[in-house]
Structure formats: structure tokens, C-alpha cells
Amino acid sequence: MNTGMENTLSVATAVSNTGDGGILPLQILGMVLGVTGLVFFLGAAVGLVRFPDFYTRMHAAGKGDTLSTMLMLIGFALVTMQDFSLTSFLIVLKILSVVLFIYLTSPTSSHALMRAAFEDDEMPLSEEDIKKSKNRNRRKKS
Amino acid sequence: MIHWFAIFMGAALFTLMIPVIYRIWVGPTEFDRILGVNVIGTKTAVLLVIIGTVYERVDMFVDFAIAYALLNFVMAIVISRYLNRTISLKEMDAREKERASRAK
In this predicted complex, what is the ipTM? Predict the structure, then answer.
């Protein structure tokens, strides 16, 4: 058992040393996932800056942040998997545990924050407020 | 190839953190600031995995990422609970009305 594991490890290091230049299709999939996560994080950042209200900003940040983090971590788990040995499989399992942890905690923390804001009488924008701000902008322009 | 891809991803992530830092800087309420800090903390966990990919020591840096995500979660929960402790204005009004009605 022990000698067999050592054999697989040595074979794995040899393969990773020789195959540095080539890219597996799995790694291309990982790169695509990472860039998709970057696009989602761009949406979260734009929403965080441009939305008018705390609750809408929370909406943008909570969803975009969770999904982009998960996509990027899964993408990097696939990118780092250079061979199908036991050690690389364990590293992928570790990264997937981070993904599971963030999948559980990020919605929980945004829920707790939003509940704290609601009980602190942070009011969402009403339609009248939006109309007022539009009128102000028109006056400034004219 | 993978090396340069990881460096590109880290640079892009770092650039996209700047709008979030703007929200922390000017945020009208304290909750906006905490929200921005939470987003940056989650992204820092991803950035640690990317740094591990650049240095080819992912097995070590993933542990740091787990610890950082845990600390970030605890920070968000503790601060939201702490801000929740303060009495809201509505509740204060209701308590004053109750006192007035009892005095009458």
C-alpha cells in the first residue's frame, strides 16, 4: 500500500515536470470559469457604486459576491489540477471545502447585516424620493 | 501560461476592488461600509488562492484562505449583532408613549 502510493507520487511529479508547457482541456474550462467569475464581480462592483439605496446595494453585493467567489474558486481548483494523482485531488477537495464554506456563510452574513439595518430603521427609497431626485437633476441641468 | 493567467486574474480582482473601497470611503450609512468590508474580505480569500497558484504552493495558501473566510464571517456577524443592540428610533418613541400613558 505504502510503496504503491510512493510510486504514484513519483510518477505524478515526473509527469508534472515534463508536461509544463501543455494545457489540459480541464484547465481551459477552469480559465473560462475564472473569467466568468470576474464578470460577475464586475457587476457586483458596479451595483455597489451606482445603486441608490442600501437594500439595492445589498442585493447587488450579496448575489454577485457569492456567485463570483464560487466560480473563481472552482476555476482555480481546475487550473491547479495538473495531474490526476492523490495529492492534487486532495488540494482540489480543500478548495471545494472553501467553496462550500462560502456558499453557507455569505448569504448568512448578508442576511444578518440586512436584518440589523432593518431593525435600525434604515428605510428603503420610496417612489416619491426617486421622483424628487429626478426633479432635482432636471433643475440642475436647466 | 497558468502563471500569467493567475497574475492577470489577481490584477483584475485588485482593480475591481477599487469601486468597493470607494463605497467604504463615502458610504452614507455604517451598514454600507460593513458591506464593502465583507465583500473585500471574501475576495481576499480568492486572492490568497491566486497567490498560491502563482507561487505553486496552493496546498499551503488554501489553509490561509479558509482561516480568512472564517474570520470574515465572524466579523460580519459580530458587527451586525453589535449594531442591532442599539435601540431603534421607533422603539424609543413607543417606549416614551408608554411612559406618558402610564403617567396619565
Answer: 0.80
